[in-house]
Amino acid sequence: MSRLKRLWKAFERFIQLLTRSFEVAIEWPQNCRYWRFPRILKFINEFSLKRYDFHGCMLGTKDHEGIPIKKPWTVATTVDEIGLELSQYQCDESHDHVQGRGKPLKETESYSYLFTDSVHKAFDRAAQSARTFACALIALSDSPDFAVMLDASSASISLPPHVEGAMQAGVSLPEGRPGSEHANWRQDANFQVEQIAPEFRLTIYERILQWEKRLATIRGSCVACIFPDGYEGANKIGSGQVPIGDVIDALITKDSNGMQETYCDLVNVVKDIPAALFGAVECPPEGEADLIIVGDSSFALVANHGSPTLCSRLSFGELLQTKDYAINQIRTVYPGLKWGKGLSAINHQIWELIEKVERENRLQNRATLPILVVVGWAGNDVHGDFGYQGCTWIHQANLTKFDADRKVAADYVDKQYKKVQRSLEGLVEIHNDPRVLSVQVIGNGDHTGYSLPPSYNREMGKHVNWLAERGIQCVNSTMLAQGGKYDNYHLHDHQFNRTLVYRFLRGAITFHLKYVEVMSKQEDLRYYVQKFISSEKDRVAAVHLFPTMVQFRLALLGTQEVMQAVAPEKKTATPAQVFDEADEEILMWVHAGILEANEEATREGRPQPTAFTNEEMSSIVPVDQRQ
């Protein structure tokens, strides 16, 4: 440990001596505690390193007998080409592994030839494709709104005058990230700000502040519904300055099995918008909504499952009904639970609750708010004895003795599949109802967390993707599988699980609300970015190469127009303090939910479970204890 500290201090001193931009890559095992050291986290955040995971077995890591070792590696780097090259080496489960420990694991500290060749190829691509970008921002004279514009006569990105002149003179420009042709990154951001008419600078600054906070909430909510440990999650996304499209794509869009793709429309909107361009568009308002949350047995906490007389359950919606478990922007929660049922029964209860919301609005003479519908769907009607996949009863001889029974068994799979498809269409109908703001599905958790075969995720992924194509997005429920279960599927009702569930739901629902808000501005955002950066390739490159939102805000803060309007303490903040503050906001958002849930789970008067019905009881009580 002391050796690492000495080495890291020497490395930091070396970095301080550099007078031009640099690239860096750090490689350690995924679970190495070095990743959690404050000084290393600060370095990763300060220099915007991005993290990529990969497996050693796909890079030729083997023991002395030639058996692959599935060593989980992580590289944090400023060179995207290295991360993308190594991250493609994910174990395909086509081979057996030997457990990595002792001498065989020690030997993996020496890189394989495939490993080093991959890094060298990535370096070569990075050197050949490196380009220097800059952005010019101006105010349109024929519009009262701020606009961001590139040189309209250029098919590509407009370069600063001294860079353009050097290129015409045949001078070789230094390769690398923005800042390599300047003394430091602030000159890039300052160049952008100088192009903005003075009368627009304060407006842009205020918009950037609002967008920055909105995007920080999106980052925090992504972490909250994917990682049980907030610090691990914040470390995983690398920094609060990583482009928001990369964060969503890495954490939310795909499940761990690569079977589903959701929220792709959001990624497509934000993936190619440079930070400064957000200042061209007003940040959408944060409105309130009523919440209908209905699910199957995966959306409940069960107490005393072993006792037929004391057994009770608490639905996730009932958990959120109390004031102390509140979620911002949600006025009233309307819970529902369809234990052991499929999507058809869930849809039916949603329609009933929509009518209930309208009825209560009339009786209480309160304003009508849009309704956010959250559906917890584990796929009881897809996989298992009541699904069209994995049902075993149709093959049991004692249930297929007669022709009529055999016909029922033969037709069951096809009928059940069609029933699920009709239910999915019914969910789309709910989504399109004018009273409904949006529908979010939570489910398709990793099959290993529930002792299910991979075919479960393949089939659920198809349905999730079908819904996503029609505007209904899904958050993967894998994190809930890490709670304490009394069997392979159902959660105990205790403090840890209440904390886990509340934090997950707070993250998933908040993320979806922010998704709806950002998508309400998609036309404006796309208009500006397509108008001012015509090439899609240049737009994507600009997101990673232009100054970040914090850098752009600091450059605006240095102008006289903004300085006169902001609080004194904001004027004296150093860049390092501002970056730390931006990253801490993500962790604070995540851990605030944990603290609230811990207090709520133990307070007097907390939500109490309700008794099961006789119909539900049969699936709760262990077989040897049933009456």
Characteristic key phrases:
46% helix, single chain, 5-stranded parallel sheet, 627 residues, 12 strands, alpha/beta
Describe this structure in words.
This protein has 627 residues and is an alpha/beta fold. The chain has 23 helices and 12 strands. Strands 7-4-8-9-10 form a 5-stranded parallel β-sheet, with helices on both faces. Helix 3 packs antiparallel against helix 5, helix 8 runs parallel beside helix 10 (244-253) and helix 8 (201-224) packs across helix 22. It is globular. It starts with a helix and ends in a 10-residue tail after the last helix. 40% of the residues are buried.
Describe, in short, the structure shown:
This protein has 627 residues and is of the alpha/beta class. It is globular.
List the helices and strands and how they pair.
Elements: H1 2-17, E1 25-29, H2 38-46, E2 50-55, E3 72-77, H3 80-87, H4 102-107, H5 113-129, H6 161-168, H7 185-194, H8 201-224, H9 230-237, H10 244-253, H11 264-270, E4 289-295, E5 300-303, E6 312-315, H12 316-320, E7 330-337, H13 343-363, E8 371-377, H14 403-431, E9 436-443, H15 454-468, E10 473-476, E11 491-492, H16 495-519, H17 522-532, H18 536-545, H19 549-557, H20 560-563, H21 568-571, H22 575-602, E12 610-611, H23 614-617
Parallel strand pairs: 4-7, 4-8, 5-11, 8-9, 9-10
Antiparallel strand pairs: 1-3, 2-3, 5-6, 6-12
Helix pairs in contact: 3-5, 7-19, 8-10, 8-16, 8-19, 8-22, 10-11, 13-14, 16-22
| CATH architecture tag of the largest domain | 3-Layer(aba) Sandwich
* Main beta sheet strand tally, sense and closure: 5 strands, parallel
The total of beta strands comes to: 12
Shape: globular
Radius of gyration using CA atoms only: 27 Å
Which range best describes the helical content: under 10%, 10-25%, 25-40%, 40-55%, 55-70% or over 70%? 40-55%
Binned strand content: 5-15%
CATH superfamily placement of the largest domain = SGNH hydrolase
CATH C-level name of the largest domain: Alpha Beta
Tally of helical runs: 23
Which strand order does the major sheet show? 7-4-8-9-10
Low-pLDDT residue spans: 130-187, 621-627
**Which structural class fits the helix and strand makeup?**
alpha/beta
**Average pLDDT number:** 76
End-to-end separation: 59 Å
Count of all domains: 3
